[in-house]
Write a structure and sequence with these properties.
Length: 324
């Protein structure tokens, strides 16, 4: 493509963005747009597969067969979400093996939330209710992302996340209305997961707790992100407070109160120093999560080799059939 053609194609890209249309894999796009999408989608995919670990930890200890079956299905769903997202990143020319290598060597991130330990069964409820709840608030707008394959993957992911959120709510509801000890266990889990869930939305939009070189402004201009981190965080708080009341549980924030003027809840200061430490690799479980992930990848080498051998055999058979 000569320079003039490229300019024309880039003008076409901009007009699709301006008209709130969808960019598809074969469309010409600015290099920055492609790189931003690969970064975000890869981090998102990594979060889904690392996110299997905290809950996977409780599959063998679920309190009933029904709970075990549900938890296994949920963890399996997260693996599926990882697959949709890696496949969507591949439509931009990314190589899945290379993305995994970037994760395994700590050069690409995954969500901070999965670096916290799951200490009791009630944590399964808190993850479903709060972590999947936060994920839904963040991901529903991504169903309108300007990049078609990412937007379409998100539609399916969000449907599944809604089930996840409801099963978490149901676990906590059962515990909260059970014995005194069960209620205390549910409250303790919510106390531990509330603030890290608010951190999932990322650094603040402005001020001292904003990320140096943050991506929001450019990502919003490109229609990748539709709302800023603080806007989505506020939406999550407003949605969650009445649900906590319905559960009979409290949220661990003395500053949480309805603000009549803003028509939203005010909430206390988030410890962003903690978020930045976890993102840097210094959270409670960062090392354990990455080591486990690398080990699982190594253990799965024989499956990849068998799949390659099978594909090569099929290709050879087809060639032989064609020659016959
Ligand atoms: N953790 O300028 P921004 C799930 C990084 S849900 C770690 O705001 P951006 C479902 C950010 O990457 C969780 N790093 O960046 C599930 C950037 O670093 P970089 C996953 C964080 O991209 C539930 C820097 O800080 N969901 O898995 C975090 O515009 C239950 C500056 O930040 C998604 O990934 C964080 N919390 O906005 C699974 C959703 N926050 O790349 C299992 C898609 C920020 O410059 C069980 N992603 N950073 O080195 C997004 O919406 C965005 O990427 C944000 C960050 C909002 C996460």
């Amino acid at each position: 493509m000569d320079e003039q053609d490229e300019q024309r194609e880039l003008a076409r890209f901009q007009s699709i963005i301006d008209d709130d249309g969808r960019i598809e894999p074969r469309d010409v796009m600015p290099e920055g747009y492609r790189k931003t999408l690969i970064r975000q989608m890869a981090q998102h995919a990594h979060s889904e597969i690392i996110g299997m670990q905290p809950e996977g930890n409780w599959i063998s200890r679920a309190p009933s067969l029904r709970r075990k079956a549900i938890l296994m299905a949920k963890v399996q769903d997260e693996a599926g979400h990882g697959l949709y997202l890696y496949a969507a990143a591949e439509t931009l020319g990314a190589d899945r093996g290379e993305l995994l290598d970037l994760l395994h060597t700590g050069r690409q991130k995954y969500s901070s939330i999965f670096n916290y330990p799951t200490l009791t069964w009630a944590d399964m409820g808190a993850i479903g209710w709060l972590v999947d709840g936060a994920a839904i608030v963040n991901q529903v707008p991504l169903c309108r992302c300007s990049y078609g394959p990412y937007a379409r993957a998100m539609v399916r992911v969000c449907k599944e996340e809604s089930f996840h959120q409801r099963q978490g709510f149901e676990i906590l509801h059962t515990l909260s209305h059970g014995t005194e000890a069960q209620h205390a266990m549910a409250q303790d889990a919510v106390d531990r997961w509330w603030w890290p869930s608010l951190m999932m939305f990322g650094p603040r939009d402005t001020g001292a707790d904003a990320a140096p070189g943050g991506h929001t402004e450019q990502s919003m201009a490109w229609g990748i992100k539709r709302f800023s981190n603080d806007e989505l965080r506020q939406r999550f708080v407003d949605m969650t407070v009445p649900q906590a009341e319905a559960l009979g549980l409290t949220l661990p924030d003395p500053d949480l109160r309805w603000n009549e003027q803003r028509g939203s809840y005010d909430f206390g200061e988030i410890d962003f120093a903690e978020l930045f430490e976890v993102i840097k690799g210094n959270g409670p479980c960062n090392r354990q999560r990455l080591e486990h992930r690398v080990r699982a990848h190594q253990d799965g080498a024989w499956v990849r080799e068998a799949a390659d051998a099978y594909a090569a055999k099929r290709a050879a058979d087809r060639t032989a059939q064609g020659a016959a």
